[in-house]
């Protein structure tokens, strides 16, 4: 009996794990490689003393029917729940309630719990940075930064941000490389603050407000992590997302200095004295939000040579786009292989 071809997937974010899951549904094996300590990508959470804070995506929406069906499965399994439901907006003239007809979701009990669940049963090589691809007579081989080779594989799926994907695919497929170069990746600084006591209530604002879009200054969004599903027992903790403009201006700055700026910006928008945070910090996402002309088509790219690209940059810059891109690519590869 001929062995089912194995697929190498570079990147253990949502798109890579969705691709691996779609392949597994067709009994096709895959191996996933990621430079991080575990799965998650931009759905990463950080465990701090007394609190867990989400440093990437704060929530996601479901607009396409297939993704809505998948979200319903996750809800039934207790992996996600609606959040935020008490959403505000901060303008130059103060705080205002934000209402729309969009249901938003957060994973429980932390954003990374969703990707960790999807990674169960996946052959994951964590802390393994892939530095090059080579096509040999027996298939594709991957080289990592420790000098090890991995392979052979029938196909290679690259899901990392396009600036990191481009040098991997360029020696083998100029068209894929051009798609990567056409996409601009905007950065984002994510700050956080943990407190020993709750924030003081604001007049006219829900005492248990959960998140706020910020349309003034260097902040773009503030989230109260302790209001998220499964985290009500943790200490008061904020995630402070910087705007694209501030993130670009501060890109190479010291993380501690950026954390102080983000907290000061929130303090200036909060019309009550804030308690002194027990802990603050910041994480830089050099490639946080893709924008450019490479969206469209099937939402992924597949080369005749057996290299593929997928991710939100090729579909839409949302959690939904990442999942659909990886899922649809996995289905296409399964049909191509014939299982």
Low-confidence stretches: none
Determine the strand fraction and express it as a percent band. Answer: 25-35%
Order of strands across the widest beta sheet?
A: 8-7-16-17-18-15-19
Structural class: alpha+beta
Q: Sheet with the most strands? A: 7 strands, mixed
Write down how many β-strands occur, each being a DSSP E stretch of 2 or more residues: 21
**Rounded radius of gyration (Å):** 21 Å
Q: State the separation between the terminal residues, measured CA to CA.
A: 14 Å
Label the overall shape.
elongated
Mean of residue pLDDT values: 94
The total count of helices amounts to 8
Provide the helix percentage.
25-40%
What's the helix-strand series?
A: EHEEEEHEEEEHEEEEEHHEEEEHHEEEH
Summarize this entry quickly.
By secondary structure, the chain is of the alpha+beta class. It has helices at 14-25, 65-76, 112-118, 162-169, 174-181, 244-249, 255-269, 319-337; strands at residues 7-10, 30-33, 45-48, 51-54, 60-61, 80-82, 87-91, 94-97, 104-107, 123-125, 130-136, 139-144, 149-153, 155-158, 184-194, 211-214, 219-224, 237-242, 279-291, 300-302, 307-310.
């Amino acid at each position: 009996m001929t062995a089912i071809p194995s697929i190498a997937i570079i990147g253990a974010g949502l798109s890579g794990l969705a691709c691996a899951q779609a392949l597994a549904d067709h009994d096709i094996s895959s191996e996933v490689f990621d430079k991080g300590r575990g799965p998650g990508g931009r759905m990463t959470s950080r465990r701090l003393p007394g609190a867990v804070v989400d440093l990437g995506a704060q929530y996601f929406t479901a607009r396409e029917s297939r993704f809505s069906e998948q979200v319903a499965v996750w809800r039934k399994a207790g992996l996600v729940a609606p959040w935020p439901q008490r959403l505000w907006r901060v303008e130059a003239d103060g705080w205002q309630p934000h209402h729309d007809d969009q249901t938003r979701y957060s994973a429980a009990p932390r954003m990374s719990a969703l990707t960790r669940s999807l990674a169960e049963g996946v052959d994951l090589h964590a802390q393994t940075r892939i530095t090059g691809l080579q096509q040999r007579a027996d298939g594709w081989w991957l080289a990592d930064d420790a000098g090890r080779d991995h392979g052979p594989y029938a196909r290679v799926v690259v899901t990392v941000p396009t600036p990191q994907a481009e040098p991997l695919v360029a020696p083998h497929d100029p068209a894929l490389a051009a798609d990567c170069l056409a996409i601009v990746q905007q950065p984002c600084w994510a700050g956080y603050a943990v407190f020993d006591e709750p924030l003081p209530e604001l007049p006219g604002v829900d005492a248990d407000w959960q998140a706020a879009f910020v349309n003034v200054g260097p902040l773009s969004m503030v989230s109260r992590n302790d209001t998220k599903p499964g985290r009500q027992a943790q200490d008061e903790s904020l995630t402070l997302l910087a705007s694209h403009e501030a993130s670009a201006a501060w890109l190479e700055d010291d993380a501690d200095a950026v954390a102080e700026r983000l907290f000061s910006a929130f303090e200036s928008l909060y019309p009550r004295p804030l308690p002194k945070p027990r802990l603050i910090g910041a994480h830089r996402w050099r490639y946080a939000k893709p924008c450019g002309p490479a969206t469209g088509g099937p939402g992924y790219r597949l080369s005749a040579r057996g290299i593929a690209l997928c991710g939100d940059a090729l579909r839409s810059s949302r959690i939904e786009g990442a999942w659909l891109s990886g899922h649809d690519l996995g289905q296409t590869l399964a049909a191509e292989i014939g299982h």
